[in-house]
Design brief:
By secondary structure, the chain is an alpha/beta fold. The chain contains seven helices and five strands.
Length: about 150
């Protein structure tokens, strides 16, 4: 990479500033680097415990993203855990218990692990639980259109 792509120019400064960013671009335009590089930059400043959760719709994309994070963060000795359906849940629970820096998961499998292990859910922040559709009362609420969320969010 010599010069950032348009999606990277638009997203990286916002993410580094702690703001939400949505970027759309064609295949091969650097979308993964647009969110992975700021995550790795912030992780380098405070490399402790689970730092980022990346939710992705498919297993294949989860493994692709993991490869990109490992490649981009090669000099940082980062630990990445991939949590997807079709693999042993106990092995994945252990990988999460080992506190990787980056967790890349499909929402369904992460939700399954949270529901099957109370200790695992306690190890993650409230915000991660909310992003999976759990609220402070421990219940899941539908926000319509097939989405889960918390009232008032």
């Amino acid at each position: 990479m010599v010069q950032p792509t348009p999606v990277q120019e638009g997203c990286i400064p916002a993410v580094l500033a702690g703001r939400d960013a949505i970027g759309t671009a064609h295949t091969g335009s650097g979308k993964t680097a647009a969110f992975a590089l700021p995550i790795l930059q912030k992780l380098a400043e405070d490399p402790f415990g689970v730092f980022a959760l990346v939710l992705t719709p498919t297993r294949e994309l989860a493994f692709q993203l993991a490869d990109h994070f490992k490649s981009l963060g090669a000099g940082m000795n980062i630990k990445v855990a991939v949590v997807v359906g079709g693999l042993d849940m106990r092995t994945q629970s252990k990988a999460l218990a080992d506190r990787p820096h980056i967790v890349i998961s499909t929402p369904g499998r992460l939700l399954d692990l949270f529901e099957s292990s109370t200790g695992l859910a306690k190890g993650f922040s409230k915000n991660v639980s909310i992003s999976l559709g759990f609220c402070q009362d421990g219940e899941r609420h539908s926000t319509g259109k097939g989405r889960l969320g918390c009232p008032g969010r």
